[in-house]
Amino acid sequence: MEQTIYYLEGDGVGPEIWRAARPVLDAAVDKAYSGERRLVWREILAGEKAWKETGQLLPEESLLALRGAAYAIKGPLGTPVGAGFRSLNVTLRRTLDLYACIRPVRYFPGISSPLRHPERVDMVIFRENTEDVYMGIEFQSRSAEARRLIAFLRDELGVELAEAAGIGIKPMTEAASRRLVRRAIRYALATGRPSVTLMHKGNIMKFTEGAFRAWGYAVAREEFPHLCLTEGEAQAGKVLVQDSIADALFQSVLLYPERFSVIAAPNLNGDYLSDALAAQVGGLGMAPGVNMSDSLAFYEATHGTAPDIAGKDSANPCSLLLSGSMMLENMGWTEAARRIEAAVETVIAQGRVTADLAAQMEGATPVGCARFGDLLGEALP
Ligand code: NAI
Known about the structure:
- This protein is of the alpha/beta class.
- The chain has helices spanning about 15-35, 50-55, 60-65, 90-95, 145-155, 175-190, 205-225, 245-255, 265-280, 320-330, 335-350, 355-360, 370-380, and strands spanning about 1-10, 40-45, 70-75, 100-105, 120-130, 140, 165-170, 195-200, 230, 240-245, 260-265, 290, 295-300, 350-355, 365.
- Helices cover about 45% and strands about 20% of the residues.
- The chain is globular and about 70 Å long.
- 1,4-dihydronicotinamide adenine dinucleotide (NAI) binds near residues 13, 285, 300 and 356.
């Protein structure tokens, strides 16, 4: 059996983390299925490499390939300054309607953590990716647009604002909130996770974040009436849908991580929570992620191009590798995914890790990116 995977090398540390991670992905599949399954890699261009080769940052050909793809995976993308793009990642998310950003957060024993019981952290964050304040609808303080908006609010809606206010707009729709929560509930049901927590700041922002909460519960009640509980204790075979106000949730995930499993969040909350939780268990160098539309799962290294260490053979390839492992799991190639996670656990336990991890571990020996990749390959069960 073969599965085509479109891959995008990425900029900065992208090529080196790929050189370390891809052989481990191939070897894990090979070992798990004795050569009967195979990943077929097809490169697509975007970012600086595309700019150099085609004069475009995001060639139409790459978009065409991605539109027809089921699985793709990318290294980090830098945006050359002055090329007229706000962010390539944002452009990709918008163009391909990658509406759910999914980040699992789990602990690998051996890495030092500020938590007393980091082993209790096992959460998956579903972050809405297309709207909220990230739509970029903003008007600078004292600009003509801000002044017009302030006058409109005052004259038409009776809202008094400081003349010199900068303004940002936070649109959130029922359709986008529902499809995100629906996806989170389906995931919890498919993977046997006990709960979905709706994260919101609805006590203050009633018609955006408060509405997200209400729409989320409506999805549970209307679309999964026999599979979800919206109150009481968790029950085997059912998903408990609960909610938490964002600030309280930031406390609770640190104090009682075992109470949370899947978390569904609007864009801004989800952004903050993803990085905060990643830091609790080893930082962004370890955090995998995927952005999903209804047809494409686009996995990614969640960190940036790390220009300070690019080309120095010291980047940690785990974010990319674990994203690849998530992809294998989603494809149903769970045995290969399990072997990759086991290899990461083994090599970390041996304390031979890249500098970012060594700095967080007692008695660890730092190794380069390429060597770390070799060690991971050797540790595959
Ligand atoms: P960054 O994530 O590249 O770096 C932040 C810090 O983390 C640096 O000290 C870096 O050395 C370290 N780091 C990152 N990845 C690492 C790895 N694999 N192993 C070890 N250490 C690692 O964030 P920064 O510096 O803010 O952004 C640099 C560029 O990356 C910018 O052009 C930005 O737009 C882009 N970027 C791209 C992202 C993506 O493609 N998903 C995400 C974030 C930033």
